[in-house]
Design goal:
- The protein is α+β, with helices and mostly antiparallel strands and 339 residues long.
- The protein has eleven helices and 15 strands.
- The chain has a six-stranded antiparallel beta sheet.
- Helix 2 crosses helix 5, helix 3 packs across helix 4 and helix 5 crosses helix 7.
- The longest helix has 29 residues.
- The protein starts with 5 loop residues before the first helix and ends with a strand.
- About 3% of the residues have low confidence.
- InterPro entries: DtxR_MntR_Metal-Reg, Fe-transptr_FeoA-like, Fe_dep_repressor, Fe_dep_repressor_sf, FeoA_core_dom, Iron_dep_repressor, Transcriptional_repressor_C, WH-like_DNA-bd_sf.
């Protein structure tokens, strides 16, 4: 008995053709996407190794193969194969089990660091992403930006010298501005300084510092120092940090003849029935967020007071130039006042 069905055969043939098209379609087919994904993973591993080697060598430390394998979240085989490939390409040289950058490897690492820090600056200046998201987003984007795209981004941002954490951004030729400062953990009591850098690694310490609402650009005065804690005053608040946290904050020491103004406070400290004058907006708030506050009237010299309190704590409504404006405490903490 003949069971051949030409319609069924045609459907099967069309189905095979469709699968073949989906699998092998140029650029967007599954085969090409899988292949690109594999190449992308290899590229990310190589670039992450280069960055780690650069940062450690810059600090006077050389990594061995086991150090690199432990720090990357990839299979041991993939990492070791990548190191061998990097040696073949002349990006690193291997002495025993120690891996060192060559000049080509160092230049490549600087290009990745440049892309990372520029993208963090872009996120800070041009978007509304929270500062705790900048690093992770830049970690992904640094592998996607070409050299031309990175240079275009730098041009659009005005070729900034520092990222929002205060880290120097390499120029197109690999040069970086020198970061001159002292960790807060090394300051003597009564020292006055301006915060110029906050390390974003390790992540857990960075998040603790951010939770304390400590800002780059703020002027501080150390009032207490012990092996257990360091206390400094800044913008009307007292900050108590463990030395390991204070060591991740760098300040530029101010001259002794520069006075520390105890009466400059953050707007969120203002109490009901108190009046104040706007001194300025912290450098911590940038881009659209900064322009919005200025447009709302929070400009230097403007009078401000509390209009309405929220029984839940925030937001509070502030009276500025005859208009009631609601701000969260996080926003108000970046506006400086003098009562």
């Amino acid at each position: 008995m003949n069971t051949y069905d030409p319609l069924l055969a045609l459907l099967v043939f069309l189905g095979i053709c469709l699968l073949g098209f989906l699998f092998f379609r140029p650029n967007n087919g599954w085969f090409w996407l899988i292949n690109k994904g594999s190449q992308s993973t290899d590229k990310i591993i190589v670039e992450d190794i280069l960055k780690r080697l650069y940062h450690n060598e810059n600090a006077g430390k050389y990594l061995n193969i086991n150090d690199i394998v432990r720090t990357l979240k990839q299979s041991d085989k993939m990492v070791i194969d990548s190191i061998d490939n990097m040696a073949t390409l002349g990006l690193v040289r291997i002495s025993g089990d120690v891996v060192k950058l060559t000049k080509s490897g160092s230049d490549y690492a600087l290009r990745i660091i440049r892309a990372h820090r520029l993208w963090e600056r872009y996120l800070a200046d041009k978007t509304g992403f929270n500062k705790t998201e900048w690093h992770q987003r830049a970690e992904r984007k640094e592998h996607e930006l070409s050299m031309d795209e990175t240079n275009l981004l730098a041009h659009k941002l005005g070729n900034p010298q520092f990222d929002p954490h205060g880290d120097p951004i390499p120029t197109i030729t690999g040069k970086m501005a020198e970061l001159k400062g002292v960790p807060v953990s090394e300051l003597k009591t009564h020292t006055i300084g301006r915060i110029i850098h906050i390390k974003d690694k390790p992540d857990i310490i960075y998040k603790q510092i951010m939770a304390e609402n400590i800002h780059i650009g703020s002027i501080i005065r150390v009032v207490e120092k012990s092996p257990e804690r360091i206390v400094f005053h800044s913008e009307g608040e007292a900050f108590k940090l463990a030395p390991i946290m204070a060591g991740n904050i760098t300040v530029s020491i101010l001259e002794k003849n520069i006075s520390y103004e105890e009466d400059i406070l953050r707007l969120n400290i203002l109490k009901e029935n108190e009046k104040a004058k706007i001194i300025g907006i912290s450098k911590e708030i940038r881009g659209e967020s900064r322009r919005r506050l200025l447009d709302l009237g929070f400009v230097k010299g403007a009078n401000v007071s509390i209009d309405l309190l929220n029984p839940l704590g925030e937001p509070k409504a502030y009276l500025i130039k005859g208009t009631s404006i609601a701000l969260r405490n996080d926003q108000a903490s970046k506006i400086l006042i003098k009562k």
